[in-house]
Structures
1.
Amino acid sequence: MNRNRTSAFTLIELLVVIAIIGILAGILIPAALRGVEMARRSSCANNLKGIGTALLNYAPEHRGNLPAGDSLTDIAKELHDGGYLTDLGLWHCSSDKKDDSGTAAIATAIDEFDSSRHCSYLYVSGYNLLATGEIPAQAPLAMDESNRSDGGMNLPALEKDDNHGDSVRNVLYLDGHVALLKGDDAVNHVLDNLKEPEKLECVD
């Protein structure tokens, strides 16, 4: 007499399947997250290139001077009012989740723009393109900020809550190119090639 057997997973087979799914998830999820962060770094670099274009368009109409101010709030408003940079989204890195006063976000209007909430970058103020003694390809103009930045020409150590973590920073240089720096270069050596640092100031 033939008996129909119903197919079913045994407990051991079920555990093996669960283990395989767990292993695949452990491999694929970190890789996917790394891919997302790489895309965000690229978007951040494009933001800085856009900011650089606006700044370099500003200089010829202001005797070679780049905009100056006590904070990036003032500078962003000057660039916006002059029509050089009206896309407020360029000031915000998509990896920037936290700022000094809370959650970082994109400003919806220039009147509400506040660099402590709507800006992910640090700006080096004081350049004049016609009179600078700096080498443009080595002179930083803007970069990913540190949430502990306190102005002056000091770059505090990056932390895990900063734009791209504690060891990665996008830097816009005076010639308009953007480079991704890692490790010690991301903090300790960004300003090392400046010839006249006393003429400049980091503002955020």
Note: Helices lie at 11-58, 72-81, 115-118.
2.
Amino acid sequence: MATARIGVIVVSDRASRGEYADEGGPAAREYLEQRITSPVEVKVRLVPDERPAIEAALCEMADAGFALVVTTGGTGPAPRDVTPEATEAVCDRMLPGFGEAMRAVSLRSVPTAVLSRQTAGHRGGCLIVNLPGRPGAIAECLDAVWGAIPYGIELAGGPRIEAEGAFRPRGR
């Protein structure tokens, strides 16, 4: 089985300027490396909360053949939170069920989850999933949608990824 490439894009003005140590990117990387059992290479990139920078990073990874790209941060209602808009601009098809599931699970922990605007979509064979920036919320949200991620990659024409807790229809 070939090594699948996974991208983690950290969306943060301060982290991209080196003003503080980002915790979201390492949390997402650790989650992915723990769950994926087939060969995987995870690349983390920091970008500012600027739509052109986010779009460029998403396109760069997706068009280079990354199977999955997750973003952390920029999904709230603040004026600089533009990750969902950047994701929608570069995706061929949107998958709104991802955001619905992540918000539903987050509402069990915090009432402000209704303010979150996470989404997901496909760009070619790459699945793009927006996550919040807090490490605990990253794991919580990924747990909510993890079963569908490997199969969603495969359905879009991406590589088969073996992972703990992944859904596989019979005969696959």
Note: The domain at 4-155 is CATH 3.40.980.10 (Molybdenum Cofactor Biosythetic Enzyme; Chain A).
3.
Amino acid sequence: MKSVRQVAILDIIDKQDVETQEELADALRAQGIKVTQATVSRDIKELRLLKVLTPSGAYKYATADKAENGLSDRFIRVLAESMLSVAVSGNLVVVKTLSGSANVAAEALDSLHWPEILGSLAGDNTILLVIRAESEAPQVVQRIQELMK
């Protein structure tokens, strides 16, 4: 019963914005699943659901991957607005940013999970990306330049 209930919870939060545990419990009851608020609370913890901000300014439950996608979108906007230039040298890519924004921009790049990027280091206005292979560096530079547009 627990697994059926948890699958139903994931389906509900995927299809509608659920702001409270009570709303979630009501949605489960509407599907014929008997629950208490305590049960819903435990399921939320076990499923590791997060409350994320919606574009309308309200909060809703979401899975971690959905929350990360939302963060990625915001990070990409910050990245695009803060990057000034990008250059390559061998398997290293250097990204220049506005003063004080390199850490956030590096986090944005990290959140993209590009397999070519082994890691990043950020200073105040400079990011150093270590690329897996020198042959992949120009492609990474091109993708970054597309984000800058």
Note: The chain has a mean pLDDT of 89.
4.
Amino acid sequence: MLPGFLKTYADEVKHHLDFLPTWPLSYDVKLGDVGILEGSVFKRTDTLESLGICGLAVRKGRGSQVLEFSSREGVEVTSGAGGESVIQGLGGEVEIKFSRDGAVFLRVGEHTLEQFESTDTLKREILHLYEVGAWQRSRVVVTEVVKAAAATVLVSGSGSAAAKLRLDASLPGTEALAQGKLSQLVSATGSFATKIVGERVSPLLRTSGLRGLFSLDFRSTRGPATTGKGGPLRFGRVDSSDQLED
């Protein structure tokens, strides 16, 4: 069972950004990684390449803005100190105050999005693996992943917590904020379930898998993949292990 703070964090990420979170933040998730979902948290067990699926076309795009969200209630974000704006010089600080337990702050800096060009091709390959007994029904595959230069995750563990983070001193304040470069945790008061500042990470992902009613004796390689009862199996996005249940 997932720790309470991790379930809260995963739920908030799904609700606000329509992605699943990578956990821990330093987990090097790659496009084509295969694994299972524990709740809404991905655990790698394999790769498409090791299962014989190679050569799929990949599309890459650069994010045009910082990805940031905080819980709708219980989070206050301020920049600078003593009324001075961080945009007046290099560096500066950002303070995040939390007023309830389980409140979340996430900031992802410069990033790229990698995704498969065609999920139809991937579907055919995975259905074939399932037909010959080489794909477990609980498996999912990473079909989209965000690669970021920097990311910050804070989840409060009490109703009165605060953290100060320093902006990258090599950049003017406005540029550091635009790139999401909160480079160092300066101080933290109160209780935090977790506080992480990471660089060159893969903080967000989307997974897909086989869905529909599964037949226990389904192993036929003839004709379209079916379940016998529930019609054709579907290959599509999966956000939770619950979606893979019968």
Note: The chain is about 15% helix and 40% strand.
